[in-house]
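Our preliminary data section would be incomplete without showing what the modeling component actually yields. Below, a chain of 309 amino acids is followed by its predicted structure, encoded as tokens that our downstream tools consume directly.
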Amino acid sequence: MISKQLVKKGTEAKGTLYGIAAYGLWGMFPLYWKLLSAVPSLQILAHRVVWAFIITTVLSLALGKRKDFFELIRQPKRLAATIVSGFMVTANWGIYIWAVNNGRIIETSLGYYLNPLISIALGVVVLREKIDRGILAASGIAVIGISILTISYGKLPWVALSLGVTFALYGLIKKMISLDALSGLAMETAPVFPLALAYLLLENAAGRGSFMHVSVLDSVLLALSGAVTAIPLFFYAEGVKRIPLSRMGFLQYISPTGQLLIGVLVFKETLDTPRAIAFAFILSALAVYAFTRSKRRQEIWQRDTEKTR
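Predicted structure:
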């Protein structure tokens, strides 16, 4: 019994480290994309799609996941959903890269702080998941934060909202089609791959291509963008197999926190008073949500324990 508990603890510890590695790397992404600021954002996005497709396809085939591709092709609804998810995640990547290279890193972090709350709303509306007072309270506080940000901007914070919405929709589709991380990314980038490759070839033919025409470092960074995309995804997939999804969900806040710190401390973006207040409301909403989830899990555990007595 003791040995089983030790094995379980060791497995969970390893899973937690995988989760920290995944979200830690995602949190440092602004540093990577900022190094490519000399390259047009659309070209960076196209290279990310092309190289991500190549590396995930090669790895999937090497790991014997060929049957996943054939199963997906034989299921038109799942295939259609996968294509939609591919365009959704591509839009998310494109907005993110553009925002990072246009001095809006803080706003990108807000988008990923909002993502879990948007996912909750989608779960209620699309999947008919039950909503309780804790979720309502957290959502209400978040809406106040977004309202403050909107008023201070004089317009909707479209970068934050579009990042939060596109990634939440991507997560919803992923949940519905149930593909593993590696082969899933290969299939998602497959429909976008020919478009991205054609765009890069046209840009190169017109003399505007960056690859091999900019510095050696920039060309190497573009070629590595696929690996940079796949590695944290692999860590995430390994982590989520070993620890509860609730714990992995909590770890996800490492990523936007890292982005926020990089935006303020490294690239000296200004966190003015309205944005600071808005962030305070968003973080308060997340704290309320985390507290009520923990309390609710404890109540369920106590109820189940009483039933087994």
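The chain has one domain: 2-308. The chain has a mean pLDDT of 83. Preliminary results of this kind motivate Aim 1 of the renewal.
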